[in-house]
Structures
1.
Amino acid sequence: MQFIEGGCLCSGIRFRIAGEPIYSSICHCATCRRASAAPTVAWLTFDRGQVEMLSGSPLSYRSSQGVVRRFCGTCGTQLSYESMDSPSTIDITTASMDNPNLFPPTLEVWLEHRVSWQSANQTRSQYPRSTQ
Ligand SMILES: [Zn+2]
Ligand SMILES: [Zn+2]
């Protein structure tokens, strides 16, 4: 079993993940954009059982109906997304991984919300909204 690790900028929060992601995606949605103050957010989707916290306790808030986002309360790094619509999975920000190159994104979602100057990569599968 392969393990990958990641954490926040201040290193107060560290986590470890067993195995490979189910999806690697880029989200253009307006909520991710505001939550991270970035034009897009790259996500790795895992089964919740794959993810183990090693240190620290993220803060959380409800960013939309049935959705909880977690982040470091000290440095502000955005860490995870959990939706009641998908109770067995958790999305972890690709850019919080120690090696963000391991699982390149294969799809882009919520292109309906794309910022006009942020180009989409046409080599990836494109979805106007979510994949569901
Ligand atoms: Zn931190
Ligand atoms: Zn999003």
2.
Amino acid sequence: MHFAELLLRWYDQHARVLPWRGIHNAYHTWVSETMLQQTRVETVLAYFDRFIRRFPTVEALAAAPEDEVLKMWEGLGYYRRARNLHKGAQQVVAEHGGVIPSDVKELLKISGIGEYTAGAIASIAYDQAVPAVDGNVIRVVSRVKGIRENVGIPSVKRRIAQEAAALVPQSRPGDFNQAMMDLGATICVPGTPSCERCPVSALCDAYREGDAEDIPELPRKNPPRVIDYDLCLIFNGDRVLMRQRTETMLQGLWVYPMVEDHHTVKQLPALVKRKIGLPVTDIQTAGEAKHIFTHQVWQMKLYIMHTTAEAPAGWRFVTMEEMQQLTIPTAVKKAKEVVLNYE
Ligand code: SF4
């Protein structure tokens, strides 16, 4: 029996039941696949329903203000995905009359749609026999085909993409791609796979050779940069100082002032005056927090301080009610809790 037949037979019995499955809706596929990048299925489940209820169509998403889109994404992380999805929806409305294209080449021109998402939309929503190659599929294909070179090498990547494309059947390509994702997520997992339960073990090179644990050879990652910050919760009466980030990382999200490195309580007033332009008094420590991003680790010491001055340019004093409406990154969630619990 062929690879696709074996895999689809397994999928018919074991497919994970997910709300974005079983319907041909390119918008749902786009939203779910965007959310699933770097986020676990269990987490996405709650967000997907809420997001689709709030923005039921690509037109509704395109018409929404960015702040609202970010708010619906709050806690999912990697906010660039949400901003690109939003931009992409506007592009679909402006350039395609609100109809998401079915052709991979056209899909790739849309903001936020890369090779993987294009393949997922074309195959799942439009039944096109194209692959959708993500990390799971790279792992499955390199094991099945016995590709033992480092998958970070461009020529190896191309070979995996070709092998993946050759496996996709003409009939049920969308189910096939989802079956590959499920296989990679539940059986052909990183480290030690459960080959004894695998529907395609008879066709798997790594299984025959007994070296699945060593495949794929992954590109070496640089360790994340550890940055120390003093996070300053500056109160003016019952309002707290915040700003909306313009930097690429966490763009559009609201944060409190942060100064790099750790300092003593004595050093902070002069530093805050110099960096933020505010005179502050009554500094108290308010605990510590740590947040791990892909490329950075923030080690934060939290301080509460007070001022009677107005907010400097680019900053705003917000009330607690206003703060609840803003999209605040998980990285500074602890700081938000400190503010909310401060009497
Ligand atoms: S036999 Fe093992 S290594 Fe091969 S595809 Fe199945 S789970 Fe992965």
3.
Amino acid sequence: MTVTGKLVRVYQVDKQIRGLKSRLRAAERFLGEQSRLLGELEAKKVAIEGQLRQLTASASNEEGEASRVNERVEELRERMNNARTNKEYKALLTEVNTLKEERAKHEDGAIERLEKIETLRTQLAEIEAQHAERVRMTEVAASERKEREAEIKDRLKALEGERDQVIEDVPGSALQAYDELVEQREDEAMAPIEIADRKRHEFTCGSCMMSLPVESMSALLSHGSLTKCVSCGCILYLEENTREAMTPAAKK
Ligand SMILES: [Zn+2]
């Protein structure tokens, strides 16, 4: 078998391995995305819960202030009832009016905070519902990932064993060239030569579709030596029907 023929065997096994792993990778990406979204919702939840704690404390503080001022108002009213002079009465009345304004300010402050609390509680309920939904999605994603992994395990192991066998025959330098290309191009590391026009000796690269010199075809036909596309650099090979089409009938 030629170097190219040996590499094609490795390439075909690798393509199957990548195909198998791609479903697992997709499941992993999906799980990653679900976990990320779940994390975002958790952060939002924590932030709103913090705001709620703060607002609840400050609302009850305002309510406390309002009732403290109110007690003072009641006290002053009592004293107004017992006022001995008009002057004393008027002084107390002025003080009461000032305190009433202060009380109203605290009451408004409390109401304002209670309204904000109401809005935040609605938001929190929505986020909690989304969170519960996302938890379910994450669980589904995790079990899907596990399933994909189990699904391919045996087949993957068999293919990896097959790969170990077929690479044994491949010369080190060719394997290295191939591995480097796989690193960059995955399934496009190798490509078949395609016949554009046999009579005119027009051939193209199956990966980049650019035309190839006739030497590429003859190198593969005669020695099957490592032949790269002059345009994209992938390793070229001949499919069986192309080889047959290029071999004169007498030679078959
Ligand atoms: Zn090419």
